[in-house]
Structure formats: structure tokens, C-alpha cells
TrEMBL record:
Residues 455-702 form the Protein kinase domain. This is Receptor-like serine/threonine-protein kinase. It is found in: Membrane. Keywords: ATP-binding, Disulfide bond, Glycoprotein, Kinase, Membrane, Nucleotide-binding, Serine/threonine-protein kinase, Signal, Transferase, Transmembrane, Transmembrane helix. PANTHER family: APPLE DOMAIN-CONTAINING PROTEIN, BULB-TYPE LECTIN DOMAIN-CONTAINING PROTEIN.
């Protein structure tokens, strides 16, 4: 693999590179009264490039061409590639009045001409520049060219050239191979930018795609070697409204470096080495190996040159034709193990280290985030994958694919992430992490997005410590509350899964129901039942209800996102204390020490004055022992350490018998500042900011 991706070999060593051409009377320009014939050449002012007549190999045909002055065997541009001269002494190269470069034979017939000049020039002349660009200019106009050979390359890309499309003029600049080493006429292969969908570069043979690099990811064409450290040839891409161009540039401009398309369709980068071994050194090849063959592994197949056989299926996919697969016929590609069902909802799996699939059938947006990109893709049932448009600077923009994903391969280096649509059943929350009987519905991101009006501000119920909470309505009319974990949430996937399991286990008709969750890509959401008009809080506290969102969250969850069964025990304890006292924990404060309900209840309990906190209407009944027991039990449930809190089995048992209750420790969120905190990370006096944020995280009625 290492050698196949980027290898270096000496292709050939030129024994004699010095030209026999007569350059003593060389100029870099010719005007309308001058001409160039065999025996004379144009030489660029710095002596780097030379233009003259040449005949390749053993051919009897003659051409006007361009080469490095000191490497005459390597012709980098040919004028009359389709119309050779039979007689070297008969050709005359000159420039005509309107500004057209022409090659005439001895009967003054035009053998070849540059395309028409963009405008009529008064004093046109031809000049060979040190970049290797042969230009037609007008008199003293140094700003623009009437024509340039850089717009009409043959098989060689030089530093400073652009290739690609100008949609306004309809002009395309691309490479085309020679027919053979002895015939520079247009061969079978082209190497060009294809702007369909999102720009990519294709090598085609007779119009049929052979190899592909791209789409351009902000740094390189996906699948092309990373050339960012290449000082002698840098590729940059300019994607404008009216054009898309790839430009070759260099930091080390003194190096002789070219990019060619061979007669067999291999795109190659060469560097001239002028040390003891003088010659062109091959720097890179496209294709680099068999896995670069376009569509080698079919749809959803993935090439991996380090594997045997080289074709496999993407995870969650299997060969469509398993029998053919064993015969190395991979053309049928792979199919999904589990069929998509867009109406029910699909999701995305992240695949890494890939050369991105063919993006001719794609859509892009430069300003979207990856999350918005996912939502965009989910909206369309034929959208099969998405990823960032630009991977530089942490990633930005959105690129989404429609239809089957083809021409994917694994890359040892420089691969990208791709989020591929799969059936929701394929989206593991890692199954073994869950109880066998754990069955919680998965919601599709698009469903939730729709229900919340794409997470509209007006539907935001509040901002929790771990992200915003939205109100929404499902298509069947069910009201939901969506807790959307922010990316910056301290709660990781494990904690989230843990919470999901715990809440799912605690489903109860008197608790707000967890309807399901949504885990897609980077999104993690919990979907709860939302019933503001029927909830317990309304029964308890009537219309001031809007402020009622707080006070039930356990400290370990509030501060660390650690959710356990004991977190719900805490909430239950708060509720119990509220019922008995008739007070709300969220707004209750007592005395100048600002004790909250839990702290006050604990203080009274220690002073054996708990009865003072019992709601007046309950005190009238002859059940004060029961009330004190409930108060004690409530305090047991809200102890700071989760381990100290009883489990619900014990709570039920303690509620239904008269056993002696255990000693109670300090509750969580004890707000008396002087009280030392048993758990160093849990502040006994949380900053008001976080308290406010955290309180909203707890959903209504829990
Ligand atoms: C080179 O130019 C000189 C002077 O113009 C001329 O005498 C000579 O024949 C030329 N040599 C060749 C090889 O063309
Ligand atoms: C080169 O240019 C000089 C003056 O600029 C001119 O005298 C000479 O004839 C030119 N030579 C050729 C080969 O055009
Ligand atoms: C072309 O160049 C030659 C040499 O510099 C000069 O004598 C001649 O006047 C030029 N012709 C035109 C049309 O500029
Ligand atoms: C070409 O070779 C000649 C003779 O060795 C040398 O003087 C000249 O500098 C070389 N030109 C370039 C551009 O390397
Ligand atoms: C090539 O052209 C020269 C000059 O026009 C002529 O003398 C010669 O006969 C031609 N040779 C052939 C093979 O046509
Ligand atoms: C010059 O070119 C014309 C047009 O291609 C052709 O008909 C003619 O035979 C050529 N003359 C010579 C001497 O090659
Ligand atoms: C050049 O222009 C003339 C007249 O406008 C036109 O007939 C000819 O086809 C043009 N040639 C090219 C190569 O565009
Ligand atoms: C360029 O040439 C035009 C006419 O040929 C002339 O009017 C103009 O002054 C020249 N400009 C310069 C900067 O030489
Ligand atoms: C390579 O080096 C030789 C000898 O130093 C020199 O003559 C020649 O011009 C050089 N070639 C290039 C392409 O720089
Ligand atoms: C998608 O799922 C729904 C509900 O289970 C079912 O009615 C429908 O037939 C499914 N569609 C496909 C294409 O499987
Ligand atoms: C609940 O706690 C009691 C007492 O600590 C223990 O014996 C029992 O096993 C626990 N039940 C569960 C389901 O954890
Ligand atoms: C409170 O939160 C706001 C908004 O997040 C922040 O700008 C401010 O600095 C915070 N204040 C404190 C004391 O943390």
C-alpha cells in the first residue's frame, strides 16, 4: 500500500539533453513583419523555455512545440498537434494583423492558427514567457493577452496554469493525451474538471470515466494525494459563480516540475532532478493503484488496497451478488442489510477514512453546519449521505449525495468522514449495553425537526445545563418536550445512554413519560411526553406553574451529567417533601441564610421540629406520625450521595410498613454556605447562573 500510493521511480534518464538548435540569434518575440522557421527558435527572456520545430521519435512529421531549453526531449505544448508538417523546412510561424498566430506552409496555406483573437490588435506580437506561456499581445498592452497557450494545453500542466471551466465563455481548459509517443494528436484520454454536482476531476477514455478524484474538500480533491507539503507544485481550486478552476502553483519556483497525462491515461507528476542521475522523477500517479479504478467495487462497495480481495461492502451492507463477489466480479456492488423506510425514519452512520463517493448527483451549501446538513439530508428520501463541504478549519458547509453511493475507497491517509443513511434499526446504541427488555423507540431527526418547527425559537421551553428544551407536536397530535443535548454538553454518550436506560426503566404513569430518544450523528435528544395542562405540577401549584421547572434535579446530574436510578429517587424525595409541606422547592427560601426547602426540612429534622413544615391542611388530620415519617423518607431520598439514597423498592417498603427509618445525611443542594461539601466537585452553593440553567433542564412534572 505504501509503495502503491506514492512511489518514486526513475522513468527514464536522458543521455543527451542539450539541444542542437541554434539559439545564438534567439529572441522571445516575433511581430507581424517577422517569422520563425526551422533552425531558429524563440527563447523566453530567462532562457527557460524554447519554442521551435520538432519531430517526435522516429516520426517524419514536424510540429511547432515548446520545451524546457535544456530538456528538449520533453515537449510540453504542441501547436499543430492534429496537422503536422511533412517538410520541416516548409513551415513558417508568424502573427497576423488582427492578432492571430498562424503556421503557414510554403504555399502560404494556413496549417494551424490560434483561435480568433478576442479583439483586433493594432500592433500584435507573439511572446514566449518564462512560465512556458506563449502569448499574443497588443503593442504596449502589458495587462492582457489576445491569446495564450495556457488556455489550450495539450498533455502537460505547467505551474501557473488553470484548468477547468469558464461558464460565461463556455471555455473549458483540460488535458488530453497524445495518441502515442510519436504522435501528439489528441489521444483517447482526457483529464478534466467536471463541474456537475460538485467539482471533481475525471480521467476519461473516449468519454468513459476511468478514474476520479474529488470532490474538492477545501484542501485537496478527495482521494488525491495530499500535496499541501509539496513545494514544487501546489494545486488550488477556485470555485466561483461563473467558473471553476484548478490552479497549479509553486513555492519553489526554481524547480522544474510538470503534471502530464500519459498516452495510457495515467496522470503523473514529475520533477526534474539534475544531480548525478539526471532525469524526470515520477512523484505521483493517478491512479495510484487498482482501487482507483472508477466504480471498481460497485455501489456501496468500498475498495481497500490493503485487503484481499480489495473490494468489500460498507458496514451494514452486503454483496448484492455474493456468488459474483467470490469471482472478483464486484460490479453489482452492495445492498443494505436492512431496507430504508423514509416514512418511518432512517438515520445516519459515520464512516471514516474514506475517499468520498462520486458527487455528480449532489447538492451543496457553503454556510451550513454539519447539523443543518443532516437535517437537510433527512428531508429528502433520496439523500443518501452528507458531510462537511470543506474540511479545513474544523469543517464547514454541507455536501449531500443523492442516489447510490459509488466509487468509495478506504484511504490510509487523508480520508474523510461520511455520514451514510441507514435504516433506523441499524443505528445501534450499542446493544449489549442495554437490558434485553430495553425497548425505547428511536425517533428520526426529521420527525423531531418537523415537530419542533426545525427547533424554532418560539418552541423553546428553556435552556438547560446540557442544552435547550423544545416543545413540539408530533404528526399524530401528541405534544412532546425535546431535550436536545448541546454539542458542548459535558454529558457524553455514555452518560446519555445511561440516562436513557434509567429513565426508560422508570416509566410510570405518574411520571412524565419518556417517549423515546433520537441519536443521529452528533445529535442526542430525549423525547418526553409534554402535557402542561394535565400535569401534576398544575394540580399542586395552580397557575404560577410557568416558573415550575426546577428543584427536582439531583446534584450529581446537575453538575456532572451523571444520571442514575438514584437521581430519580432524589426527584421523588423532593416531590414527597413538597407534597407534605405544600411548598415548592424551586422558590422556597427560609430565613436570612436563604435555606431552600431541602435544607430547611433537614434543619428542622435535626432539631426534631419537622412537624412545623407540614402543610397546615395536613396537620389537621390525626396523622402527624405519618407526616413525620414521610418527611424523613423524603429526606432519605434527597441525600447528597446517590449511594446513601434508598432504592425505590426500599422506598415502597418503607412507605408500607412501620420499620425504623435509617439515619439521614445532608441533602444535595444544601445552600447553607458554611456547610462543607462531602463531594469536592459538588458545590454546596452553586453559582446562581448554573442553578438557573440547571433548573430548566428538569422537565415539567418530573
Ligand atoms: C546558427 O546560426 C548561425 C548564424 O545565424 C548560422 O551560421 C548557423 O548555420 C546556425 N546553425 C544551425 C545549426 O542552424
Ligand atoms: C531578434 O531581435 C533583434 C532586435 O530586437 C533583431 O535584430 C533580430 O533580427 C531578431 N532575430 C530574430 C531571429 O528574429
Ligand atoms: C518588428 O520588429 C522589428 C525588430 O524589432 C522591427 O524592426 C519592426 O519594425 C517590427 N515591426 C512592427 C510591425 O512593429
Ligand atoms: C541551460 O544549459 C546551459 C548550458 O549548460 C546553462 O548555461 C543554462 O543556465 C541552462 N539554462 C537553464 C534555464 O537551466
Ligand atoms: C521541402 O521543402 C523544401 C523547401 O520548400 C523543398 O526544397 C523540398 O523539396 C521539400 N521536400 C519535400 C520532401 O517535399
Ligand atoms: C500546404 O497546405 C495546403 C493545405 O493544407 C496543402 O493543400 C498544400 O499541399 C500544402 N503545400 C505543401 C507544399 O505541403
Ligand atoms: C474566426 O472568425 C471568423 C470571422 O468572424 C470566423 O469565420 C471563424 O470561424 C473564426 N474562427 C475560429 C477558429 O473561431
Ligand atoms: C500604447 O500605444 C498606443 C498606440 O499604439 C499609444 O497611444 C499609447 O500612448 C501607448 N502607451 C504607452 C504607455 O506607451
Ligand atoms: C543540469 O546540469 C547540467 C550540468 O550542470 C547543465 O548543463 C544543465 O543545463 C542542467 N539542466 C537543467 C535542466 O537544469
Ligand atoms: C415503512 O414502514 C411502514 C410502517 O411500518 C410500513 O407501513 C411501510 O410499508 C414501510 N414501507 C416500506 C417501503 O417498507
Ligand atoms: C434495594 O435496596 C435494598 C437495601 O439496600 C437491597 O436489599 C435490594 O437488593 C435493593 N433492590 C434493588 C432492586 O436494587
Ligand atoms: C452567567 O451566564 C451568562 C450567559 O451564559 C454569562 O455571560 C455570565 O458571565 C455568567 N455569569 C457568571 C457569574 O457566571
Amino acid at each position: 500500500m505504501k509503495t502503491s500510493i506514492k512511489y518514486i521511480c526513475i522513468l527514464f534518464v536522458i543521455s543527451s539533453i542539450l539541444s542542437n538548435q541554434n539559439v545564438s540569434n534567439a529572441n522571445d518575440t516575433i511581430n507581424t513583419t517577422q517569422s520563425l522557421r526551422y533552425g531558429a527558435t524563440l527563447v523566453s527572456s530567462g532562457g527557460i523555455f524554447e519554442l521551435g520545430f520538432f519531430s517526435p521519435g522516429n516520426s517524419n512529421n514536424w510540429y511547432v512545440g515548446l520545451w524546457y531549453t535544456n530538456i528538449s526531449q520533453t515537449v510540453v505544448w504542441v501547436a499543430n498537434r492534429e496537422t503536422p508538417l511533412r517538410n520541416r523546412t516548409s513551415g513558417v510561424l508568424t502573427v497576423t494583423e488582427p492578432g492571430i498566430l498562424v503556421l503557414l506552409n510554403d504555399t502560404d496555406s494556413i496549417i494551424w492558427s490560434s483561435s480568433n483573437a478576442s479583439r483586433v490588435a493594432r500592433n500584435p506580437f507573439v511572446q514566449l514567457l518564462d512560465s512556458g506561456n506563449l502569448v499574443v499581445r497588443d503593442g504596449n498592452d502589458t495587462d492582457s493577452y489576445l491569446w495564450q497557450s495556457f488556455d489550450h494545453p495539450t498533455d502537460t500542466f505547467l505551474i501557473g496554469m488553470n484548468f477547468g471551466w469558464n461558464y460565461v465563455t463556455g471555455m473549458e481548459i483540460y488535458l488530453s493525451s497524445w495518441k502515442s509517443l510519436e504522435d501528439p494528436a489528441t489521444g483517447d484520454f482526457t483529464f478534466n474538471v467536471d463541474p456537475t454536482g460538485y467539482p471533481q476531476v475525471f480521467t476519461r477514455r473516449g468519454g468513459v470515466i476511468m478514474y476520479r478524484i474529488g470532490p474538492f474538500n477545501g484542501l485537496v480533491f478527495s482521494g488525491a494525494p495530499d500535496v499541501s507539503n509539496d513545494r514544487t507544485f501546489l494545486f488550488g481550486t477556485q470555485i466561483g459563480e461563473n467558473s471553476v478552476f484548478v490552479r497549479g502553483d509553486a513555492i519553489e519556483r526554481s524547480a522544474i516540475s510538470i503534471f502530464t497525462l500519459s498516452t495510457t491515461g495515467v496522470a503523473q507528476r514529475w520533477i526534474w532532478v539534475n544531480q548525478s542521475t539526471r532525469g524526470w522523477v515520477l512523484y505521483l500517479n493517478i491512479p495510484s493503484d487498482n482501487c482507483d479504478t472508477y466504480r471498481l467495487c460497485g455501489a456501496y462497495g468500498v475498495g481497500d488496497i490493503g485487503e484481499f480481495p480489495v473490494c468489500g461492502c460498507l458496514n451494514k451492507f452486503e454483496p448484492e451478488d455474493p456468488e459474483g463477489w467470490t469471482r472478483a466480479d464486484w460490479s453489482n456492488g452492495c445492498i443494505r442489510r436492512a431496507a430504508l423506510n423514509c416514512t418511518v425514519g432512517d438515520g445516519f452512520l459515520k464512516y471514516s477514512n474514506l475517499k468520498l463517493p462520486d458527487a455528480r448527483d449532489s447538492w451543496h451549501n457553503g454556510s451550513m453546519t454539519l447539523e443543518e446538513c443532516e437535517v437537510e439530508c433527512l428531508k429528502n428520501c433520496s439523500c443518501m449521505a452528507y458531510t462537511n463541504l470543506n474540511i479545513s478549519g474544523g469543517g464547514s458547509g454541507c455536501l449531500i449525495w443523492f442516489g447510490d453511493l459509488v466509487d468509495i475507497r478506504v484511504l490510509a491517509a487523508g480520508g474523510q468522514d461520511l455520514y451514510i443513511r441507514v435504516a433506523s434499526s441499524e443505528l445501534g446504541i450499542n446493544n449489549e449495553a442495554y437490558d434485553k427488555d430495553f425497548e425505547l423507540p428511536f425517533f428520526d431527526l426529521s420527525t423531531i425537526s418537523k415537530a419542533t418547527d426545525n427547533f424554532a425559537i418560539k418552541n423553546k421551553l428553556g435552556q438547560g445545563g446540557y442544552g435547550p428544551v423544545y416543545k413540539g407536536t408530533l404528526e399524530d397530535g401528541q405534544d412532546i418536550a425535546v431535550k436536545r443535548l448541546s454539542k458542548t454538553s459535558k454529558q457524553g454518550l455514555d452518560e446519555f445512554k445511561n440516562e436513557v436506560i434509567c429513565i426508560a426503566k422508570l416509566q410510570h404513569r405518574n411520571l412524565v413519560r419518556l417517549l423515546g430518544c433520537c441519536i443521529q450523528g452528533e445529535e442526542k435528544m430525549l423525547i418526553y411526553e409534554h402535557m402542561p395542562n394535565k400535569s401534576l405540577d398544575l394540580v399542586l401549584f395552580g397557575e404560577i406553574f410557568a416558573a415550575f421547572k426546577s428543584g427536582y434535579m439531583s446534584p450529581e446530574y446537575a453538575f456532572h451529567g451523571r444520571y442514575s436510578i438514584k437521581s430519580d429517587v432524589f426527584s421523588f424525595g423532593v416531590l414527597l417533601l413538597e407534597i407534605v409541606s405544600g411548598e415548592r422547592n424551586s422558590i422556597f427560601t427560609y430565613g436570612d441564610r436563604g435555606l431552600n426547602l431541602l435544607a430547611y426540612a433537614w434543619t428542622l429534622h435535626q432539631e426534631r421540629r419537622s412537624i412545623e413544615l407540614v402543610d397546615a391542611c395536613l396537620q389537621n388530620l390525626d396523622n402527624s406520625d405519618q407526616m413525620l415519617r414521610l418527611m424523613h423518607l423524603g429526606l432519605l431520598c434527597v441525600q447528597q450521595h446517590p449511594d446513601d439514597r434508598p432504592n425505590m423498592t426500599s422506598v415502597v417498603s418503607m412507605l408500607s410498613n412501620e420499620s425504623v427509618l435509617p439515619q439521614v445525611n445532608q441533602p444535595g443542594f444544601f445552600t447553607e454556605t458554611s456547610t462543607p461539601s462531602p463531594e469536592s466537585n459538588v458545590s454546596s452553593n452553586p453559582p446562581s447562573n448554573s442553578t438557573n440553567q440547571l433548573t430548566n433542564t428538569m422537565l415539567d412534572g418530573r
